[in-house]
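Observation: inputs received (chain + arginine).
Thought: call the complex predictor directly.
Action: predict_structure
Action Input:
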Amino acid sequence: MLVSENISDVCAVTENKEHFKGEGTKLWGGRFSQKTDTFLDKLNASIVYDKRMWYEDIQGSQAYARALQRAGFLTEVEEQEIQKGLELVGQELELDKFKLHQSDEDIHTAIERRLKELIGLPATKLHTGRSRNDQVATDMKLWLKSRLNTLKKYILDLTQHCLISLSTVASSPVQILVERAKTEVGILIPGYTHLQRAQPVQWSHWLLSYAWYLKEDCDRLLQVQERMNIMPLGSGALAGIPFSINRSLLAKELGFTRFTYNSMNAVGNRDFIAEFLFWASLTAVHLSRLAEDLILYSSREFGFVSLSESHCTGSSLMPQKKNPDSLELIRGKTGRIYGNNCGFMMVLKGLPSTYNKDLQEDKQAMFDTYDSLESILQVAMGTVKTLMVNEESCTAALTPNMLATDLAYYLVRKGVAFREAHHLAGEVVILSEKQRVDMPSLSLEQLKSVSEKFEDDVLKIWDYKHSVEQYQTVGGTSTSSIIHQIHVLEEWLHFSEEN
Ligand code: ARG
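Observation:
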């Protein structure tokens, strides 16, 4: 199609008369005797971005033509001509041969205008009972429904990578993956709260914590998709259709499971966009937090991971730099995605019922969010897949004071109430600080000066591996719990991929 993606380009196109085959007539021109102001024309034109829905618009029109024929508003011949004509328009759009007219406000107008040029009279019957109001809501749902499946696939792949990166063979079958995961489990990192070293955890546990976020994003996506599966077409401008169109069949043909029951609601409802924008924001927030962790972990100060050069860039001034741009862009795009969400809620908040032109703002928010999320999912996938874990640096970052909680649990096992045990472990921390030694260097006598409950077996506390293996209850950071998580996630992945 001879229209640029860029909004300023389309303004130039609007001004460049040579670009157009003819002035054309506006769909709604009947009651107007004055020409539309040029600036309003520019502002009103959504074709520059809504052309992305051309396929769905044609799909919707083809199904609608069949519905009109069934209802007796088109003869079989007319319907056939419309079908063939729409095919041709689709080919022109696909091959970028579609010539734009100045009157082509949006993709709906453009396609109908071209159809009339190609087949004449039958084209003028296609809009019987239909309005761009129910048409646009239907097109958007069709577009989003199919794109959400693509996003879901990326999320599943990324989740898979969180599992796979535990293994050295990226495309291993499940059994091998789990076996490999078992052998690679054991790399410990400091777990943080408030970004302060808290307790030792397994590197795999950290990775899987994001797999769980992504699983929830997928679960939520299914719900959003389910609610989106309601066809607005057949609602007219706002009052419905005065002709007997079989909406149930129409919905089925377009792949919707249901259709709307209130025409006023149908044409003014953009909750599916708002839900998509929120869902995308939350998914992006998860990617952004993953990115933030990895930005920290890949810094010299932490050194837990090394990012692949394929996912970093350098500095034009400082030769030594290897910057985690992939992760920073994920974090940055998240702000943008969230901005689209907030912005669109502001568009909606004061609108009177049914369709208002403000709703046209839905498209840029939807497309931009889709593009941004798709790109950060792809980049997140690559970054997680190609990074290397530096086991030595991870281990070196573990410090004995991270075992203070285990010291309290030791006392709990000796019969001390937890609050008391917590207090006593705190006293051991103070003692070690006063003595200027790490806790494991305190003698049994020194420990006994805090509590008589300390015995020889306290020594086993000062072992990080022993520490993590204590957390065996489902959800904890022990190896058995991690293997369990992997099983559950893999089962879910297989189920999700099959469905
Ligand atoms: N381009 C318009 C939009 O996206 C299509 C609907 C136009 N409806 C109308 N009543 N002017 O919102």
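Thought: report the result.
Final Answer: The mean pLDDT is 89. The beta strands are 188-193, 196-202, 230-231, 258-259, 305-306, 388-389.
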